[in-house]
Amino acid sequence: MTREEELRLVRRVQSGEADAFEELVRAHEKTVYNLALRLVGNPQDAEDMAQEAFLKAYRSLPEFRGESKFSVWLYRIVSNVCLDHLRRQGRRPASSLTTEDEDGEEQQWDVPDESRSPERLLEQKLTREAVQRGLETLPEDQRQILLLREIRGMSYEEIGQTLDLEPGTVKSRIFRARKKLVAWLLADGNIPDAYASKETGKG
Amino acid sequence: MEQCEAMQTLISRMLDEDLDAAEQRELAEHLKSCADCRALYEAFSALSGALRSDLVEPPASLRENVMAEIRREQIRKKNRRPWRYALAVAAMAALVIGVHFAAGNRMVADLSQSVEITASAQPFEAAAGGSMMMYAANSAAEEESAEEMAPVLPVYDLSEQRWEDFLASDAGAQRSQVTADRAPSEALTSAAEEPELFAELRLAEGSVWLRCRGEELFAEAPDTGELVALDMTRSEFEAAFGEALADHP
Asked: CA nearest B34 in A: which residue?
């Protein structure tokens, strides 16, 4: 959807056509949901957060003037809703959550299991579950900024507008988030062979 | 190695297509000879790829629930106006009746008073049918999950007070917030610029979130979620209600 098309839909909603909002939801629901999912960590909360964000956006739409992109405005709401939720829940303890992995078995989302052999660790790919665990060790603002870049695909300038930061700050925060996450994945044993073998001296 | 630290930031920016031609050449040259940085580039790429491609489809219920709630709100808005109009008619009728009957003066006073009380109670209780229920359900769910881990936000327990009493107290808001059919006022801030969460306030009807921007304190109205600016500053509130702080388990 182009910026003009988006703006047209926004105007229609502002003049009373609530149904036009459905088009905006359709255009953004996948990234909003995935952003929330990666931020809060479980599908139930993610759906609640996404729903709350869309409703807040709808209710505040009378105040949106189109000076920034609609998506920048929307993702600011999404970020705030998710961060609020995380703050209300308190800092997530490493060992409290369980979730199902692809095999349908329950996985304990906690610190890496010491009983895995080093050989098996090297063979493991960068799994979704491992990445998610690693994400949750990042401080929330680093997590959020990395996800806005990777999942939403926002430019540095747009992220700066969304979070009220200078582009330079955005760049360095993203870099630090990546570095930290990669370091964690390595310690967890979930990094691609090339990098892992470099660090462990094998292969 | 200092040079590598600088190169590493270039790697990160390269993934985001933020390098100019000169920087790209510089990085390419460096990567030819530096195995450490090549390894980092692969790790960053793998991570980026995993995050970007591993998207799931949102549940259908997401869009359905959003649109259902929006349509419900539209209906609620439409239904309020005819009701208010009927009120005005009833009030007028009461006044007219009062003029014609000598004993009607007291009757008019009673009638208009009960009409006013109904008017002020309506938004809160009408909301109880829809969003208040949702709110109550949400906060019940939040309280359930909050039990699993210690809350970070302080909790003020004023559960003997109702929302209206709180607003009328020293802490509350001068403005009367209870009008039917109101448009967003200056006191509201756009959801895109909400002040930070500060504390949870337990009242008789349920929990209310308090937010702050520096010393400015706001309360989220339980029925509409709109922000009400409070008279007390944050420090004043903490001092006045320190005793009401609930103990965490």
From this structure: A198
What DSSP character marks residue B54? -
Asked if B47 and B118 sit in the same domain, the reply is no
**In the structure encoding, which two tokens stand for residue B26, read together?**
């510089």
More confident residue, A92 or A170: A170
Of the candidates A55, A155, A199, the beta carbon closest to that of B66 is on A55
Q: Collect all residues of chain B within an 8 Å Cβ-Cβ radius of residue A182.
A: 40, 43-44, 47
- The pLDDT of residue B104 is above 80: no
Residues B34 and B81 in one domain: no
Nearest Cα neighbor of A147 from A48, A69, A60, A78 is A78
**In this prediction, does ipTM exceed 0.90?**
no
User: Cβ of A90 and B146 within 8 Å?
Assistant: yes
Q: Which two tokens stand for residue A68?
A: 């920034």
Q: Give the phi and the psi of residue A154 in degrees, each rounded to 5.
A: -75, 145
**In this complex, which of A54, A92, A128 lies closest to B66 when CB atoms are compared?**
A54
Q: Which domain holds residue B65?
A: 60-129
- Tokens for B128? 């109880």
If one counts the domains in chain B, the total is 3
Do B35 and B74 reside in the same domain of the chain? Answer: no
The residue in chain A having the minimum alpha-carbon distance to the alpha carbon of residue B211 is A84
Q: Domain A3-89, what fold? A: Rna Polymerase Sigma Factor; Chain: A (1.10.1740)
Average pLDDT estimate for B215-235: 82
CA separation for the pair A189, A183 (Å, rounded): 10
- Whether B135 is covered by a domain: the verdict is no
Q: Among B249, B33, B17, which Cα is nearest to B147's?
A: B249
SS3 assignment, position B245: strand
Across A21-38, average pLDDT: 94
| Domain A114-200 belongs in CATH node 3.40.50.300 | no
